[in-house]
Amino acid sequence: MPQFDFTHVFWPQIAWLAVFFVILYFGIVGPTLPRLGKVITEREDKVTGDIASAESAKAASDKLAADYEAGVAAAQDEARARLVKVRAEAAAAVEAKLKAANAKLDKQSDKAHAALDAARTKALAEIESVAAEAAATIVEKLTGMRPAESAAVDAVRIVLP
Fold it and tell me: Residue 132 burial by CB count (10 A; 0-12/13-18/19+): exposed, middle or buried?
């Protein structure tokens, strides 16, 4: 095989290989490398720019989120304050209504006690007069003499509380 004849064929093939390699390298790779470097640089710049814009967008979104949280917290605090105020007003209104109702009930209770005392006094007077009449009638039947009305009333008053 002529390819393995190292003395006559091999060294000229190596020489031609080197010549074609140099021609192809400088003919193809030489113009391509700057373009390739330019593309790599552009991609790197674009990625760097995208990362920077993403970081700025993240910072902006973090700021918006913090502002939103602060707004929500402020709104919650305001709502709590309003709730406390409304509860206090409602409690005061209920307390005022309770005072008015208690005063009205106290007046009604006082009137009822007065009416009850009057009815008790009237009932006791009637009971006293009926008891005095009955006592006088009993004494009259037992003794044949009717006692004086004032004596019967005095006797009933001693016995009744």
Answer: buried
